[in-house]
Amino acid sequence: MKKLAQTLATLTMIFTTVFAMSGNAQALTDTQPARFADTSMPVQQLVVYEKQSVSYDNFGAAIFAQGQLSSEASKMPPGSEISFYIDGNKVNGPAGLQQSGVRCSSTQANADYYKNTITMEKRFCPDFNDAILDGRSVYGMVPTEAIFLHKSNGERCYATGNGGAVYLINPASTFVRNYIAKRGAEKLTQYGVNTLFLDNLQPSLNTVQERCGGTPQEYPNLNNYTAQMMDLAAYVNSNMPNYRIQGNLANAVPSVWDQLSFLNGAMCESCFSNWGGSWPNASRMLSDLAVLDKWINVYGRTAFIVIRPPDTNEASNRFTFAAALLVARTDGTGVYFHFGANYGQLLSIPEYNYNLGLPTAPRTCNGNICTRPFQYGTVTVDFGTRQSTITLGSVPTLPAATSTATSTSTTVAPTATSGAASPTATSLVPPTATRTASPTAIIPTATRTSSPTARPTFTNTAVVPTQVLPSPTTGVPGQNSLSIRVSSGSNDAEENSRGQMYTTSSDLELVYDSVLQTVGIRFTNVNLPKNANIVNAYVQFKVDKATSGTVNLKIQGQASPNPSAFTSTRYNISSRPRTVNFVNWSPPAWTKVGAVGPAQATPNLAPIIQEIIGQQNWASGNSLVIIITGNAAKRVAEAYEGDRSGAPLLYIEYNVPTMMIAEPTSTSTATSTATLPPPSATVTATATVEVLPSETPSPQPSETPLPSDTPEPTPEVIVPTDTPEPTPTP
Predict the structure, then answer these.
(1) What whole-number distance in Å separates Cα of residue 202 and Cα of residue 206?
(2) Pairing relation of β-strands 635-638 and 583-585?
């Protein structure tokens, strides 16, 4: 048995671990690692940035810089989530190039500096510094000096370090955004990973001022700089459609996490921890808890909770760990945790592997104290006193069985009390259960009084619209089809990057209108049976304004079985949970006002619609919502207020399972008797078959011939004005 007592000089709290397996008590030894992907341990560990000195068997995720990807990624357990780390707000290069107009020497061009920023290796000189002087295109764009931030004296904002120097980039630069997306895709393909992690999306504004010797020329209001970092992440996400994008958001400012809900995962460095040397108050930690809970359980994203205290105070780490347990998903996923004095070290402590099983309910809070039940225990966290308790041994009671369980509580306190007696080791008895009887089931039998002479097949026949504009499909055409047009002004809406809602606009900018925006489109009375098999689906738009230029859009659905109409509440679109399935769309130029044709029809949205109607509470006649995000360019479509007959139209083709019934003279009776002590029950059921009516879709507008394209310049980015809360970032 593992000792429960350790001296207060080296450890300030007690944790007890008990495994109840096959009726025998099994305690962890000091060398026994946590088990990867074991649902008895809902919160797994995380490797951050650096090589570890411990075995990787107990890790579930990793964020590696380029040097570690080549040497460490293969050590991770199969199925681990591995991300490629880069610092998103600066670029590494040789020292001595802070003055613009100075060409790199051969020595500078070959300098071996740390490769963790946006070039991802020694490409500062050819791709940035010298490309500006030569007017040379890199990934299809020519850089100018505007890609950097500058001091008041005109020098580039920089600091020595990382084997040379780091230069702050301007996140609003289209060249920088394009470079990260193109270079990122190259490197992820090279290393065979699919996730890019962008550090400093909510950067330390103090660090910016230090490297710029004050406020940079480009951002008199430094909060606008942080807003542009978030827009940079949106651009990279939209322009790397085959990859997942994650980011370091530093602290849990609700508006920031809502705006960046398109990210696959996010890191919080200050959640439930004394990041920077001071603890947040209970109110702030409860707010962080709500933000993470929404991120994990509503948006369906992954959270990295990272603690880097100024010392290795295990009481602090254990408190934060217990808080993380409060937001794990009900399937035991969604949260990864990193302990240690810095990112490059890990304190691998077997005591963190508790046999809690899966969460059985959400957390409940009473004041500053939050509690959550698990299959084999309970977690309680007091955010006021920063103490936490994990109670093991609460085993679920089986039907018709009696059980006796011994529970043990262990309390985590952040500090030790001088002079207190050391606790003594205790031997724990595992939960035991005794069945009074084994359930017996009698298999139902069925007897037909006469056999049917025929089993006709009922197939619904669709009325085909006079003008069908389907996108490319797979499989056979749908047997049924329906068309639904937006029916009110509150059913198509725009939300800008500051969360402001526009529900009465006469047009829909997909998706740039001075700032990036999120577009929501709601379709009502969608008469799709729950068992429908979606073959083809698309949204048909009508052109309101002629536009050209490259547009990259990402289309998702709202992951709700019957969503409400849009309102004026801030972030009313982006705060809605989204489907896992998505479709990318790069529409060609829209050059003819009023055009309604294939160029204005989305690709096949069948996977999105299928996921929506597959939800538990979906019923025919419910509403569904389509959500569109993208890069800083646009196509402009009619909204309901601008042209009711040209408002977005959803077209769906689907099949329903073939149903067979017997002739009326056939009778089938099935009796099922099941005995479970106690009680017993007798159930008699008569099978019935429902024949679904066919749908009659509304005709779609005819296609208008398209003239030649008329290029339109891509608009400049206008800086949002959100005010994130600054937090020091490494």
Answers:
(1) 12
(2) unpaired
Give the dihedral of Cα atoms 133, 139, 140, 145; nearest 10 deg: -30
Question: Are 677 and 400 in contact, with CB atoms under 8 Å apart?
Answer: yes
Above 90 in pLDDT, residue 49? Answer: no
What pLDDT score does 290 carry?
Answer: 93
Q: Percent of the chain, pLDDT > 90?
A: 36
Residue whose C-alpha is closest to residue 19's, from 10, 28, 11, 6? 28
The gap from C-alpha 444 to its chain's centroid, in whole angstroms, comes to 45
Predicted confidence band of residue 341 (pLDDT cuts 50, 70, 90): low
pLDDT (mean) for 461-469: 32
Read off the pLDDT of residues 78-107 as tens digits, 9 standing for 90 and up: 878 899 999 999 999 999 999 999 999 988
**Residue 637 C-alpha from the chain's centroid:** 28
Q: In what order do the strands lie in the sheet with 377-382?
A: 364-366, 369-374, 377-382, 387-392, 408-412
Report which residue type is found at 638.
E
What is the helix, strand, coil percentage profile of the chain, to 5? 20, 30, 55
DSSP characters over 39-74:
TTS-SEEEEEES--SS-GGGEEEEEE-HHHHHHHGG
Mutual angle of helices 222-239 and 174-191, in 10-degree steps: 50
- pLDDT reported for residue 570: 81
Parse the chain into domains and list their residue ranges: 37-89+171-205+213-360, 90-169, 480-655
Give the chain's count of helices (H) and strands (E): 11, 39
- Range in 135-139, 566-570, 603-607, 630-634 the model is least confident about: 630-634
Q: For residue 330, which of 364, 296, 304 has the smallest C-alpha distance?
A: 296
What token pair was written down for 702?
């005819």
Q: Cβ distance 452 to 685 under 8 Å? A: no
Of 667, 655, 724, give the one whose Cα is nearest residue 447. 667
d(CA 711, CA 547): 7
| Closest to 612 measured CA to CA, from 582, 579, 584 | 579
Give 138 or 341, the one with higher predicted confidence: 138
In the predicted structure, residue 487 carries a pLDDT above the cut 80: yes
Note whether 97 and 108 are within 8 A (CB).
yes
Superfamily of domain 37-89+171-205+213-360: Aldolase class I (3.20.20.70)
The amino acid occupying position 165 is A
**Can you read off the two tokens belonging to residue 428?**
């724990």
- Look-up: residue for tokens 């001075």? 514
Measured between alpha carbons, how far is residue 25 from residues 17, 20, 35, 328, 426 in Å? 10, 6, 17, 26, 13
